[in-house]
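Fill-in record for 2-polyprenyl-6-methoxyphenol hydroxylase-like FAD-dependent oxidoreductase.
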Amino acid sequence: MAPMPKHAVVVGGGIAGLATAVALQRRSWQVTVLERKPSISEIGAGITLWPNALRALDALDLGDRVRRLGLVQGSGGIRDSRGRWLARTDSDALAARFGDGMVILERGQLLAALLEACRDLRIRTSAEIRTVEPGSVDANSEAVVRLGGEPHQGGSILGESIRGESIRGDVVIGADGLWSTVRGSLWPRARVRSTGTVAARLIGRVSDPGGVQGGESWGRGDYAGIAPLPDGRFYAYLAVPVSADVPADRGEALTWFRHRFASWHAPLPELLADIEPAQLLVHELFDLAPLSTLVRGRVALVGDAAHAMTPNLGQGACQALEDAVELAAALDATAAVDPAAAPDSSAARDPAGSPDPGAALHGGADHDLAEGLRFYERRRLRRVHGLARRSRSAGLAASLRGRATTAARNALVSVVPGAMVLRAFDATLDWTPP
């Protein structure tokens, strides 16, 4: 008789959660997704998928679909606030080096593609998580997600809402974002940090879209970015110091940003003039202080719950997609190894220098699961910590305020050879699915 498939409970129905659900489903896991909101949805803004994220989507059999939905970013780079180029990136050279360029689309389109791939899974909305119990692999006790809150009428994908239940799983995946309830239950000392920056996001139109190139622009204390979308609109973000006191009211905030960026290069002022207050999304930027572990018992963290980082490298969602593929592969690889045939751990190393997942197994499916979780943690910790650190540093560089320091920054960036700029992407983009 074939063994019963293992059951994973994924907390969070965003990009990280649905990608993890798809990855586990493809490896024959039973998956239940729990989403706090009444429906699976994404705030309307753009997203850039770098080559590493596209490889992760290829591993989920979604890469080609997402490429068709999106637009390949042309050449771009970094400008000053007047529009003078400081550094350029060549899209053809990027694709030649890493196998793909950058693909830009709306976040909602990516989420919809992931949701469609989850059509055979059990997705439960209006699921308010109260606590999470990690269980124990050694004691063979399952992880438990306990739900609470008041009943909610409607809104559930499957026409059901759940309250007061306990849902058990062989593993629980915390994919519930920056303010993760799962992480709060089991990593109570985790620290969310302000970056000192407030960002506005928007999607709008310009009169001459053909003349617009994407990229990021740096001022004194402020920075902004723009990227074309497939339908002729543009996604833009604008970042200012928290101390600038952006108004809380959206209408007042839009007027404020129009004034703040009025002298910046085209088409930023035109984009701000094109939108209504409801189209402006304003929020403070936070990241997560590095965690020493991503696993507690049978619970693992992915995405922003594990390593929320600033947006300055464009790697937040990209790393969530990597997490999904890596976690599913680690659990699958350990479950597939015959413990009696496992080689000595000193003889098998993965490219990152960590022991091969099958190398140290010695007995039992639950022990294999524990090895898989530990292997996932080893594979991901160093990578995401390094990327989060570099992303925060990039944000600090973009946010410099002094006249002399910004002039020196711009001068330094402008003399870096293009080949060196391209090589600087290696550590970020040269990731291969296991």
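KEY FINDING: Residues 7-75+99-191+288-337+366-396 form a domain with the FAD/NAD(P)-binding domain fold (CATH 3.50.50.60).
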